[in-house]
Amino acid sequence: MNEDPAFEIHVHGDVKLRAQAGHNALEEALRPLWKYAGAKSLADGAESLYEDEPGIRFDPEESMLHMCWTVEGNEDFRQRLDDLCMNLNDLSEEGAPIEVTFYDADYDEEDEEAGRESRDDFVLLFVGPTPAAIMQAQRNLLVDDVVSLMERHFDGAELAGVVEAIDQLFAQRFERLTTSLDLSRPLHGPGNPGGSHGGNRRPRHLH
Hints:
Layout: E1 7-16, H1 23-29, H2 31-36, H3 42-45, E2 55-59, E3 64-73, H4 78-91, E4 96-104, H5 109-113, E5 121-127, H6 131-150, H7 160-178
Antiparallel strand pairs: 1-3, 1-4, 2-3, 4-5
Helix pairs in contact: 1-4, 6-7
């Protein structure tokens, strides 16, 4: 990692893991994160840059990996994301989204007041044991977002047709996937759907 980080990078997500996933396997799966932070182990690298963030935690009772973790870094962090997703695909029990936000470390209030854009960026990734599980996680997130938006104008009971249309779109996508060679490649979801660059800054997750 370079000495002068351009970004504060926040990784956020909850991933349900297989019951057989032990500490050693989890530590190896998360190596792209803690190694990037300059740590020698998961225990050393699990703490976030910010004290009010939980960092990287594993709940053995629920077999749930919780990530709310910030590290200083640069564009090369993106290279770690593919390895992280592939590793978590192998350990996950269900599909899950992972949000990665790049906050411009040099951007301040004076820049905002002057109307200058930040280099902030947002990446939404998905992990899961199978392509079907990943698509289910994508579908669930999309339904939540669409219903939440439309409930400002319509009663929830009126939106059954909208949800049905979304389900049909994902059914068609999965059918295309099963008839293509893509099925042989584990998915980690689209790189940057609905991502943001510049403009209004994404708020940090509060706990």
